[in-house]
């Protein structure tokens, strides 16, 4: 089904270009470009509607629509509509053209949010009756550029009528039967043009299973190939030497650290390629484990790379690893985005010649032009973008290093195993001794003066603080604090203490400077956006104040909170928040009640169902078109087991029933070794 979209009737060069911008080149890609939600235009009696719920009703226009303009390009259209014998007011913002479409006495369908007390419907649209869609469900696609949803819908309809027969079933009938799954062509049809809510549900169920099964097959095939196929690089080192390194560290490792380090070291010594996920809550001490693994790699004759999401973190890791490793004649270098051309060239040269043992940087580390002499281990810290694709890039460069992913995202272990089907998982489930639990308080914004007083007392003791603000620019709509404003304001209020400012718009030189000043306690308070979220380590900081805390996901709040409590003094986290909903309030409470990231994730799951904990922030979990890895976790588990069974079965590799599945996987680049046709 590799037909270019130009074969669709009515698609000219301009449309081809627009589709291309959306990543759609073939009819297959177009048909598999699925709606991300559906507008429900099924008409219901108004008495069935719940307060604050979206509803679509039918009625007759009972008053001349009244259109008012205000502000800049803003308008409000009000019309009274007689619905099921009740007089309902419809209010529509910024759609002045609607006025022309309706006349007194017309029969219309209106849609929007229902205020049941006042009998008002706000916000949606008005349609004349002939426009309503089959089944009442209208697909909404995310389109880009000049493409309009309406045009896109038409396009899909045309493509489907021409090419629906190209949609071939890829799942074996045995699986379809077992789970009573909808057949593929019908699934795609229902996803684009649902006939009923129930059939849409069935189509989604089928698609979720398909996505997960294909994902699991890919992951497991990859793992199988990596395990059996290409030989890794055995690092030969003496355990005693690593032990000696560990013994001179400023602190003994916790049992959990020793255990996971052991798991990693044994992988390094094997011929197999390591592909391991290291999970450990914020502050559990992952960095030192990484240092030990890098040490072993270097004395085993290889180079190591440490990849991090931000320049700040890269700087910081460079400093701490250099301190630990340079006494052992291990050369640690930083590949910074802000390095001068000449400096960069030198670093790349030294790297190629093997004079640099460990290179630290952002994802630029694996890009073109960066050639290692003998790369043996890649560690990524809080760096979720590094996945299958990046490993493929490495392989293309002829590199097959061991890979270790470190993350503080407290994904339940079973989910982690399924979600990262191609990885082994190690967990640090213990905090270093002597850590005091961070005392977390929730304060209403009106209590800010008291928070400032408290802050001053802590600063007077010689401690430091972070103040986190959500955005750096004023945004009316979101009504969030502005880091720059907060900085200006606090500079005055906190005199004589020094208040620094950190945000993403600063140049890296400016960031470095303020970070350096903060870590040397020349800056006592750091007002920052969330750029400090991951990894930053300044143990003297004992207070974290988070403005508009209700705007953050719990995982993110937990990460932010983890910036304090890194030394042996009592640390505090103040959540300035005024959540309106009960759930919002409960979430603030949960934050004050537990310091354990795993517990936090479980409590949040209980409270509001899965999905929210990981928030908008990247969790590193893979994304799917229809499936949601957390929401649909049970199906993921089933698919994981089915995939494992399939791969082991004779039939999968030979039987005709699996032919299209094999072809599909092959097209996805899964069988580079030409094992299958
Ligand atoms: P994270 O796992 O969040 O990356 P870090 O590696 O930054 O945590 O460690 C947090 C702090 O704990 C650092 O200051 C580190 O030096 C310290 N630390 C790590 N391991 C131990 C240990 N076994 N005993 C005492 N302190 C430790
Ligand atoms: Mg860290």
Structure description:
By secondary structure, the protein is α/β, with parallel strands linked by helices. It has four domains: 1-41 and 133-166, DNA polymerase, domain 1 (Orthogonal Bundle), CATH 1.10.150; 51-128, OB fold (Dihydrolipoamide Acetyltransferase, E2P); 239-428, P-loop containing nucleotide triphosphate hydrolases (Rossmann fold), CATH 3.40.50.300; 439-618, P-loop containing nucleotide triphosphate hydrolases (Rossmann fold, 3-Layer(aba) Sandwich). 38% of the residues lie in helices and 18% in strands. It has 23 helices and 22 strands. The strands form four sheets. Strands 12-13-11-14-15-10-16 form a seven-stranded parallel β-sheet, sandwiched between helices. Strand 6 and strand 7 (120-122) form a beta hairpin. The longest helix is centred in the N-terminal third of the chain and has 32 residues, at 197-228. Mean pLDDT is 85; it is low at 476-480, 609-619 and 673-677.
């Amino acid at each position: 089904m590799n037909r270019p979209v130009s074969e669709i009737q009515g698609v000219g060069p301009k449309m081809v270009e627009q589709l291309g911008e959306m990543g759609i080149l073939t009819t297959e890609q177009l048909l598999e470009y699925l709606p991300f939600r559906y507008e429900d235009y099924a008409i219901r009696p108004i008495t069935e509607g719940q307060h604050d719920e979206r509803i679509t009703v039918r009625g007759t226009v009972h008053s001349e629509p009244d259109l008012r303009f205000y502000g800049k390009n803003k308008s409000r259209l009000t019309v009274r509509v007689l619905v099921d014998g009740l007089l309902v007011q419809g209010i529509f913002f910024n759609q002045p053209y609607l006025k022309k479409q309706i006349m007194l006495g017309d029969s219309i369908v209106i849609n929007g949010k229902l205020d049941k007390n006042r009998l008002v419907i706000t916000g949606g649209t008005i349609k004349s009756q002939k426009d309503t869609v089959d089944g009442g469900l209208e697909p909404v696609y995310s389109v880009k550029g000049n493409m309009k949803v309406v045009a896109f819908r038409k396009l899909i309809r045309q493509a489907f009528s021409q090419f629906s027969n190209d949609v071939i079933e890829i799942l074996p009938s045995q699986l379809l039967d077992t789970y009573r799954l909808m057949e593929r062509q019908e699934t795609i049809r229902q996803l684009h043009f649902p006939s009923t809510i129930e059939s849409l549900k069935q189509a989604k169920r089928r698609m979720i299973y398909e996505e997960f099964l294909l994902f699991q097959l890919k992951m497991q095939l990859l793992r199988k190939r990596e395990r059996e196929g290409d030989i890794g690089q055995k690092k030969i080192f003496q355990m005693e030497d690593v032990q000696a390194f560990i013994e001179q560290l400023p602190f003994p490792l916790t049992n959990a650290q020793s255990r996971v380090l052991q798991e990693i070291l044994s992988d390094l010594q094997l011929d197999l390629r390591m592909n391991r996920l290291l999970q450990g809550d914020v502050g559990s001490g992952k960095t030192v484990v990484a240092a030990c693994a890098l040490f072993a790699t270097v004395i085993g004759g290889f180079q190591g790379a440490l990849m991090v999401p931000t320049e700040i973190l890269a700087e910081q890791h460079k400093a701490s690893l250099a301190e630990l490793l340079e006494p052992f004649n291990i050369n640690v270098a930083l590949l910074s985005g802000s390095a001068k051309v000449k400096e960069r060239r030198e670093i790349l040269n030294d790297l190629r010649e093997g004079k640099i043992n460990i290179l630290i940087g952002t994802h630029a580390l694996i890009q073109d032009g960066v050639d290692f002499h003998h790369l043996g281990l890649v560690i990524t810290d809080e760096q979720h973008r590094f996945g299958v694709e990046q490993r493929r890039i490495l392989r293309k460069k002829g590199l097959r290093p061991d890979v270790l992913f470190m993350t503080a995202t407290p994904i339940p272990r079973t989910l982690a195993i399924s979600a990262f089907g191609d990885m082994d998982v190690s967990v640090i489930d213990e905090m270093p001794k002597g850590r005091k639990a961070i005392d977390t308080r929730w304060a209403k914004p009106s209590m800010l003066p008291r928070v400032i007083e408290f802050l001053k007392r802590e600063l007077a003791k010689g401690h430091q603080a972070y103040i986190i603000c959500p955005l750096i620019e004023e945004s009316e709509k979101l009504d969030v604090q502005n880091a720059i404003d907060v900085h200006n304001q606090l500079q005055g209020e906190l005199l004589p203490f020094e208040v620094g400012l950190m945000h993403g718009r600063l140049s890296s030189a400016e960031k470095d400077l303020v970070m350096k000043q903060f870590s040397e306690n020349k800056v006592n308070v750091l007002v920052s956006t969330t750029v400090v979220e991951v990894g930053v380590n300044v143990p003297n900081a004992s207070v974290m104040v988070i403005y508009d805390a209700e705007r953050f996901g719990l995982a993110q709040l937990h990460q932010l909170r983890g910036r304090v409590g890194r030394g042996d003094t009592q640390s505090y986290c103040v959540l300035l928040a005024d959540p309106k909903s009960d759930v919002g309030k409960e979430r603030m409470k949960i934050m004050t009640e537990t310091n354990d990231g795993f517990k936090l994730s479980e409590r949040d799951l209980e409270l509001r169902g899965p999905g929210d904990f990981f928030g908008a922030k990247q969790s590193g979990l893979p994304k799917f078109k229809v499936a949601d890895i957390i929401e649909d976790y049970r199906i993921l588990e089933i698919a994981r087991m089915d995939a494992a069974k399939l791969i082991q079965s004779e039939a999968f590799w030979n039987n005709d029933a699996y032919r299209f599945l094999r072809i599909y996987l092959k097209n996805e680049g899964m069988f580079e070794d030409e094992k299958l046709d």
